Amino acid sequence: MAVVDGLIRIEDDGTISFGNYLLDTKTKLDNVEYNGDIYKVKTFKEITKLERNGMFVYESVPGTAVNNFSMEDGVVKMTVEGSEDPQITLELEPSTEYKVYVDGINIGSMTTNISGKLVLSVTLGGGNAARVEVIKA
Q1: I want to staple 48 with a disulfide (CB 3.0 to 4.6 A). Which of 21, 31, 63, 105 is the partner?
Q2: Tens-binned pLDDT, residue by residue, of the chain (137 aa)
Q3: Residue 3 lies in a domain
Q4: Alpha-carbon dihedral angle through residues 125, 12, 107, 109, given to the nearest 10 degrees
Q5: What is the total count of domains within the chain?
Q6: Residue 58 belongs to what domain range?
């Protein structure tokens, strides 16, 4: 795993990779078109944020590199890498229960708040990566 050169990249399998937690200053890239949507990424060591069509999708504090991110049919999949353990916020369906898996281990069910935010923490540290899956229950 590694940070994403160019800040955002469309992968051959149709997923999106984004973010660079090694940057000292906030860097952004917007107006990246993919499948009829416009993406924007802001990233550096303190935060990584992804928006689609001006709407919030993903945020991590501190910053992360996210590889093979997909969000389809109530399922979010990604591999997250960072130098510290991030708190990740996803925008999903409001007031909905999701099962959360980290590296294939079910860490429990979580319910989004009324605005659709789901917040989870991932243990990384030292540039390690973890596979995260969030599945609508």
Answers
A1: 63
A2: 578 888 999 999 999 999 999 999 999 999 999 999 999 999 999 999 999 999 999 999 999 999 999 999 999 999 999 999 999 999 999 999 999 999 999 999 999 999 999 999 999 967 789 999 999 99
A3: no
A4: 140
A5: 1
A6: 8-136
